[in-house]
Design goal:
eight-stranded mixed beta sheet; single chain; metal-binding; alpha/beta; 13% strand; 6-phosphgluc_deHydtase; ILV_EDD_C; 3 domains
Length: 605
């Protein structure tokens, strides 16, 4: 059994031991399958001549591939030129092939995976496909790797569902190494707080569409990930803290010499850690319970996206590990909030990176005993390598010691003097079910809201009520039938400006939903991912307008205080309008078979 470090924080050690014990049977079966695949030897030795001829027919390296003595690296790419975060990947395959040719290895693009953008589909019917796209990505990556021609895989993906889907696939093919290759954030544009202000002014009718469009275009203006600390950038933090990126790779801007050098080094590192070399690192050994606990620690320390409370359990399950909401809650109680990045502060990820970034954060968390130091990563043994940052040297990359002090304590602070003593997420439970709330950006006076409910079946009904001037007193807005079985669990981020306006008018407001909120949301208290969902007859389906609700983030409770509430018959909703249009009919089987939000709302794991 893996032993926890004696210097580890007692809470982190206890949660890790609980995860390990909970997962023992599932993880044991998973690792037995991985060991059997490793024992079978390099994949291409088992392909027939006909199999191999088909695989190499179009490759300029067909002779070298047929010999089978050098590593062949499979590239799984989320490239498309519609989405800013993935547009830089267009040139990566050629760069990777050249980098590997220089060390006597080869590469092939094994396949592509879809990459949809929640920023484009917010408030639109296409958002109902968003969460399910994670499982489609895992399936597509699985198809790409099923040709069994590869000694390692490079995964090119950044955004919301793409990285979790690729991790699920990587864990499923756990017998080969996996290196995740980021593309980096776009350069800073219009400050995020200014963008948010103009959105609120538009929602209140104070500015027109022309001003709104100008602000949005100034904010989202070039190649790279959006610069706020939403799900996409939380993913990048996770890949580094979990040891799947090269150290310091996450937040280097696209189309820069350092970005190119890191991509070249990632390709070469993938070749070095195959079974054909002397440093074999199958990804199943990287993705153990300690890596997932480290990921949750990073999530709490940075005030990351609530979407990862869905994705991490699904990712972990693919590696034979069972996570529960109690793990997130307990880790949050022990981990200080060390970063203030929009929407939790005014800075963007470029400012965070300049202030010391992940290298400073990881150094501090290791020093405080809050991260497992003794993990296996793609860079080597031990997480200490991730306190070092990359620098250009003679056209390549050298790693030097990262900052030991924050360069801006308004953005990034030491573990001993954090912004808050605890992390940004809390589990909620009560007679309305189980859910989570992100409180890192919520002012303390809004941590407890007790108010009558207004119950809605979709977000458009909320906006219509707002336009009609119906919100004049403290209110808890309930938006139900938004869970994975109902309509795919769309984000309800487009409600943020509306609810923010009400809060700005002096009302106490909160949201309760079985749906999701964006990783960019946070200033209005929101109890999300409530499970069991209303479509399954969950408690939200019993609520009526006027019921007295209490959301208490301090106590971690979510309750209906109206007597007789539990005895009511759940209402049912007409969900036929969510069944068709923009591809929704193709996902009926997903809605029927998806698991609960508490287990990751997954179909394939």
């Amino acid at each position: 059994m893996t032993q926890t470090s004696p210097l580890l924080n007692a809470t982190i050690a206890r949660v890790t031991d609980r995860v390990r014990a909970r997962s023992e049977g599932m993880r044991g079966e998973y690792m037995a399958r991985v060991r059997a695949a490793i024992a079978a030897g390099p994949a291409r030795t088992h392909l027939s001549c006909g199999n191999q001829a088909h695989a190499y027919a179009a490759s300029p390296d067909k002779v070298q591939l047929a010999e089978g003595r050098a590593p062949n690296i499979g590239i799984v790419t989320a490239y498309n030129d519609m989405l800013s975060a993935h547009q830089p990947y267009e040139t990566y395959p050629g760069q990777i092939r050249a980098a590997l040719a220089a060390v006597g290895a080869t590469a092939q693009v094994a396949g592509g995976v879809p990459a949809m953008c929640d920023g484009i589909t917010q408030g639109q019917p296409g958002m109902e496909l968003s969460l399910f796209s994670r499982d489609v990505i895992a399936l597509a990556a699985g198809v790409a790797l099923s040709h069994n021609c590869f000694d390692a895989a490079l995964y090119l993906g950044v955004c919301d569902k793409i990285v979790p889907g690729l991790v699920i696939a990587a864990a499923t093919f756990g017998h080969i190494p996996a290196v995740f290759v980021p593309a980096g954030p776009m350069t800073s544009g219009l400050p995020n707080d200014e963008k948010s202000k103009i959105r609120a002014q538009f929602a209140a009718g104070e500015v027109g569409r022309e001003a709104l469009m100008a602000a949005e275009m100034a904010s989202y203006h070039g190649p790279g990930t959006c610069t706020f600390y939403g799900t996409a950038n939380t993913n990048q933090m996770l890949m580094e803290v979990m040891g799947l990126h090269l150290p310091g790779a996450s937040f280097v801007n696209p189309e820069t010499p350092l970005r190119d050098a890191l991509t070249t080094q990632a390709a070469r590192r993938a070749a070095e850690i195959t079974a054909l070399g002397n440093d074999f690192r199958p990804v199943a050994e990287v993705l153990d319970e300690r890596a997932f606990v480290n990921g949750i620690v990073g999530l709490m320390a940075t005030g990351g996206s609530t979407n990862l409370v869905l994705h991490l359990p699904a990712m972990a399950r693919a590696a034979g590990i069972a996570l529960d909401l109690e793990d997130f809650d307990e880790i949050s109680s022990a981990v200080p909030l060390m970063a203030k990045v929009y929407p939790n502060g005014l800075a963007d990820v470029n400012h965070f990176h300049a202030a010391g970034g992940l290298q400073f954060l990881i150094r501090e968390l290791l020093g405080a005993g809050l991260l497992h130091p003794d993990v296996k990563t793609v860079a080597g043994d031990g997480l200490a390598a991730y306190t070092r940052e990359p620098k250009l040297h003679d056209g390549g990359v050298d790693w030097v010691e990262g900052p030991s002090d924050s360069l801006n304590d308004r953005i990034l602070r030491p573990a001993a003097t954090p912004f808050q003593p605890q992390g940004g997420l809390k589990q909620l439970s009560g007679n309305l079910g189980r859910g989570v709330i992100k409180i890192s950006a919520v002012a303390p006076e809004y941590h407890v809201i007790e108010a009558p409910a207004r119950v809605f079946a979709d977000q458009e009904e909320v906006k219509a009520a707002f336009r009609a001037g119906e919100f004049t007193t403290d209110t808890i807005v309930v938006v139900r039938f938004q869970g994975p079985q109902a309509n795919g669990m769309p984000e309800l981020h487009s409600l943020t400006p509306t609810l923010s306006v009400l809060q700005g008018r002096g009302l106490k407001v909160a949201l309760v939903t079985d749906g999701r909120m964006s990783g960019a949301s946070g200033k209005v208290p929101a109890a999300i991912h409530v499970s069991p969902e209303a479509a399954c007859g969950g408690p939200l389906a019993k609520l009526r307008d006027g019921d007295l609700l209490r959301l208490d983030a301090a106590a971690g409770t979510l309750t209906c205080l109206t007597p007789g509430f539990e005895a009511r018959t759940p209402v049912t909703a007409d969900l036929t309008k969510n069944a068709h249009g923009l591809g929704r009919e193709l996902f009926a089987a997903f809605r029927r078979n998806v698991g609960p939000a508490t287990e990751g709302a997954a179909v394939v794991v």
